[in-house]
Specification:
The complex is a heterodimer of chains A (about 140) and B (about 240).
Chain A (H helix, E strand, L loop, with lengths): L3 H27 L1 H4 L5 H5 L9 E7 L5 E2 L4 E6 L4 E6 L12 E10 L2 E10 L7 H9 L1
Parallel strand pairs in A: 4-6
Antiparallel strand pairs in A: 1-3, 1-5, 2-3, 3-4, 5-6
Chain B lengths: L6 H8 L2 H23 L13 H28 L2 H32 L8 H22 L3 H16 L1 H11 L19 H35 L6
Chain lengths: ~140, ~240
């Protein structure tokens, strides 16, 4: 039905697409460590050695773990399996709160202690008016 | 088939369409903005900054949609040598680029009070930035090649390279740890956005889509006039 050239061009496009998908997949696979924005406490626990480089740890701020004094803020990041203690001094984003997502940037002292130089609040995908939130909590 | 279309016939329709699209756009946009800025409730967590989402999310959707459309048209146009499809793609691209930039800028404005940073090199944000680069490459290709055959080939290749990025943008938040939150609106499963916030979002998406169509029609008409001036009755 279609000419030979049309078919040729069709297979050419398919070939390019196939090679591209394969190469992008391989590149992303090998760069996985750098593509992730943060690591979870569990991933920190399984590290073979502690890196001196700046890293990011993300998870949930453990409920009742935040303590504030004049110099610093201390809290625990948990992924519900493992935990890591974080110490930080500096400005905290408004949305930082217990039971919510957080990403801390800084240095590992050891596998249980993290010295943060920057704190980012992670927002989740839930959007609702305050009344609905209150009604949900009553249930 | 499409190959033997007549610019004059198309032009007689597309030259009249913009004023109706503009009227509809203004109506839908005013409804959307009223809903988004005044009538919709504030969020329980981020309060009024949620309203940035009503611009951010539709802009991101439209920019992804337009890039997908451009790729589809360019590839089909390349395989079957349909020159009209390339003109449609060319006319669609500028509004895609503009909405892509709007999505990045509004995201940044939202990120500062919410996350505590203007910019983060996470997978979602970086892949959106790469899409901007592809839009720019695509538009630049149209400028630098004089020869039609060359420009058709170059733009097809650019869109094929760029389209790989589109599923990466969509699934980046599921595949990797990102600072950006996962999708709130899901077609297959339950959405995690309250219905009172979903309506303004969808109306704003319709408004932005109409705006893209408006810009597209204006650009496309210019292309048709150029062809008519060259004295060609066919592409």
């Amino acid at each position: 039905m279609y000419g030979k050239k049309v078919k040729l061009r069709f297979f050419f496009v398919l070939l390019i697409l196939f090679i591209l998908i394969l190469s992008v997949f391989l590149i992303l696979k090998s760069l996985e460590e750098n593509v992730v924005y943060f690591q979870s406490p569990t991933e920190i626990k399984t590290l073979s050695e502690i890196d001196k480089k700046k890293i990011r740890v993300g998870g949930m701020v453990k409920t009742n773990s935040v303590s504030v004094n004049e110099k610093e803020v201390k809290f625990i990041i948990t992924d519900l399996k493992n935990e890591i203690n974080v110490t930080y001094s500096g400005a905290i984003p408004n949305l930082f709160s217990e039971g919510k997502g957080v990403v801390a940037e800084g240095y590992l002292k050891d596998k249980n202690f993290f010295l943060a130089t920057k704190i980012l609040a992670k927002h989740d995908e839930n959007y609702m008016p305050p009344e609905v939130k209150a009604a949900l909590e009553e249930k | 088939m499409f190959k033997y279309f007549e610019p004059n016939k198309i032009y007689s329709v597309t030259s009249k369409a913009p004023k109706y699209v503009l009227m509809l756009f203004i109506i839908i946009l005013s409804i959307g903005l009223t809903e988004a800025l005044i009538l919709s409730p504030e969020d329980y967590k981020q309060s009024h900054s949620v309203r940035i989402m009503y611009v951010h999310v539709p802009a991101a959707w439209i920019s992804l949609g337009i890039f997908s459309a451009i790729t589809f048209l360019s590839v089909i146009g390349y395989i079957f040598k349909i020159r009209n499809f390339f003109l449609i793609s060319k006319s669609l691209a500028p509004s895609g680029l503009v909405f892509n930039i709007i999505a990045l800028v509004t995201g940044s404005i939202w990120g500062k009070p919410t996350w505590g940073t203007w910019w983060a090199w996470d997978a979602r944000i970086t892949s959106m930035l790469i899409l901007v680069l592809f839009y720019i490459m695509y538009l630049v290709a149209w400028r630098i090649y004089e020869d039609n055959d060359k420009v058709f080939k170059a733009t097809s290749i650019i869109t094929i390279f760029g389209i790989i990025n589109v599923p990466i943008i969509k699934y980046s938040v599921d595949w990797w740890n990102t600072l950006h939150q996962p999708a709130s609106i899901n077609i297959l499963s339950k959405s995690s956005i309250h219905i009172s916030m979903m309506y303004p979002l969808l109306i704003m998406t319709a408004a932005f889509a109409l705006f893209s169509i408006l810009i597209f029609l204006m650009k496309y008409n210019t292309e048709l006039i150029k062809i008519k001036n060259k004295g060609l009755d066919r592409l």
